[in-house]
Specification:
Length: 279
């Protein structure tokens, strides 16, 4: 029985060459990616207290890794795992340099609870706790806060509804206007009667936290004028309406002004009496 002959497979040297070239190109790309485009240096921008080394370590970027292998999401999560850091972004400066940009969470206020001093960032999260009360920090002390729980790395929890959010709102507004270091105390005993104490001793009545930025603007303008006139210690500034600022000078200044007014009145009376006598 005769069987049909099967055609012999034709060799295609062109196809084999393409495969070989693809393998060569892939290998070359890997070599170039791991040599020419290997990370040789990393710079950090935006940090002041956290060291460059700590930021880079948190990012997970290592020297020698391919610049193309950097996972932006993993870098973001790594940097943000440090409670003092906030990831902004990374830039690949080819062929071998990486730039990390961050901001830092700095203490914006303190409060005392259970024999400890706690430091808050501007969002109301706890950065640190310490038993040392003599740490020199130019930030306001929060008083009147009903603390229920405070844990490092988490927002402070209060037993008064809305109190933590109000604190965060005021701290954020103070930071935005660059006023954090000019305030020594923020009292939140009543959320409708908030008040500040400035570092030079003036009391500023805020009312509630609505229109807080407008109120702080009015505070800046009014106290700037009053400071030119004299000492504002024990003076009271009311900006609760968010429309105008009502300032009451300290009692000793009021007393001095009253005496001056009385002396001026007496002087006017004497002048009038002398005029009458002359007539």
């Amino acid at each position: 029985m005769a069987y049909p002959a099967y055609p012999k497979k034709q060799r295609r040297p062109g196809a084999l060459a393409v495969v070989v070239w693809l393998l060569i190109i892939t290998a070359a790309a890997l070599i170039v990616g791991n040599t020419v485009f290997a990370v040789r240096s990393v710079s950090v921008e935006g940090n002041s207290t956290v060291s460059d080394e700590d930021v880079i370590r948190a990012s997970g970027i290592s020297m020698g890794m391919s610049i193309f292998a950097i996972d932006s999401g993993a870098v973001r999560d790594g940097v943000n795992s440090n409670r003092y850091l906030n990831f902004i972004g990374l830039w690949r400066d080819f062929p071998s340099h990486v730039i990390l940009r961050v901001t830092e969470h700095a203490p914006h206020a303190t409060f005392k609870w259970m024999g400890m001093l706690y430091m808050l960032d501007q969002d109301g999260s706890v950065l640190e706790q310490t038993a040392h009360f003599d740490i020199p920090l130019s930030v306001p002390l929060i008083t009147g806060m009903q603390v229920e729980a405070a844990r490092v790395g988490s927002p402070v929890v209060t037993s008064v509804s809305g109190q933590a959010d109000t604190i965060a709102t005021v701290l954020s507004a103070l930071s935005k206007r660059g006023l954090t270091e000019s305030i020594s105390e923020l009292n939140v005993t009543s959320l409708d009667n908030l008040f500040l104490i400035t570092v030079d001793g003036a009391q500023v009545k805020l009312g509630n936290a609505q229109n807080i930025e407008t109120k702080l603007y009015l505070m800046e303008q009014a106290l700037s004028i009053e400071r030119q006139r004299g000492d504002v210690r024990y003076g009271v500034l009311d900006v609760t309406t968010a429309q105008n600022a009502d300032y009451k000078p300290p009692a000793h200044i009021l007393s001095a002004e009253a005496k001056e007014a009385e002396a001026a009145a007496q002087g006017q009376t004497l002048v009038e009496e002398e005029s009458d006598s002359a007539d």
